Amino acid sequence: MNEPIFLKPFFQEKIWGGKRLKDEFDYDIPSNHTGECWAISAHPHGLSIVENGPFKGKSLEYVWKNHREEFGNAKGDVFPLLVKILDAKDDLSVQVHPDDAYAEKHEHELGKNECWYVIKADKGAQIYYGHNAKSRSELKEMIYNHEWNKLFRKKTVHEGDFIYVPSGTVHALGKGLMVLETQQSSDTTYRIYDFDRIDPHTKQKRKLHLKQSVECISVPQKDWQIKPENYHIGDVLVTRFISNKFFSVYKWVVDGGSGVFKQQAPYMLVSVLDGSGSIKIADQEYLIKKGMHFILPFSVKSWKIQGNLQIIASEPGKSIC
């Protein structure tokens, strides 16, 4: 399949969601409480559907399981990455994700290392990120005594910021934020605090996972320093935000020019956040625009991108290729 695999997203309604996915990307969302666009997903809780080519109408999970050659015969039982866009009309629950070992033992799926690129940020918007406990016993005491103001750290973020959220990190998006999230393909979340909200469907407070949280939170807090690297491919400004064993994440800014890229991994995931343009593969040109998501499979060895575009792209980490 020497062409992009274009994907139709899956949408999730959330207690904290809004309608910004419609306002910003003109997506056909299910309600004004839509929190998540699962843009590139082979996870059974929200499957992306192929929109073109020989696999049209099939799920990304189907293609991964039955046509692994499209991904360079990459190893692994599950497609390793999941790309979302999140609209936080309200604060998300303060939570933590397990690492691979804990998730495999207790949830029978991957752990969840993730990262955020901030698409939109209302003035003063904040995230919860990290904690102040010096030991696990102090952490446990602060959690079970509900000393949230003492425990949680918060910081202000802005449009264009990139935040790495490894497993074990206390975190939450604050209200007024829209982010693109690149993560391991996992849906395991342990809630520490949910602001005592009532779920409109169950009329009960949402379940917390305090025991699992105490076991999974990294202690003491580690402050991760991200050092983006900027370079050009032709006229395209490329920013490499992070490259680790889970994923590499890039931003491509195309400002009227063009650039020729070469595939450096078995496949690449691409999300167009703004603008319009085209991607040319061999002699075939494909129009791309804001809100589109696609995969460049193994057979695509190079491509030319041009137009006026802002894109977030990602590759699987080398350890999972």
Question: Could you explain the architecture of this structure?
Answer:
- With 321 residues, this protein is mainly beta.
- It has 2 domains: 5-216, Jelly Rolls (Sandwich), CATH 2.60.120; 229-320, Sandwich (Jelly Rolls), CATH 2.60.120.10.
- The protein is built from 6 helices and 20 strands.
- Strands 1, 4, 14, 15, 16, 17, 18, 19 and 20 form a 9-stranded antiparallel sheet that branches. Strands 2-3-5-12-7-10 form a 6-stranded antiparallel sheet, with no helix packed on it. A 3-stranded antiparallel sheet has the order 9-8-11.
- The model has no long low-confidence stretch (mean pLDDT 96).
Strand portion: 35-45%
**Sheet of most strands:** 9 strands, antiparallel
What is the correct CATH architecture of the largest domain? Sandwich
Strand elements, count: 20
Question: What is the CATH level 1 assignment of the largest domain?
Answer: Mainly Beta
End-to-end Cα distance: 19 Å
List the quaternary state of the chains: single chain
Runs in which pLDDT lies below 50 for 5 or more consecutive residues are: none
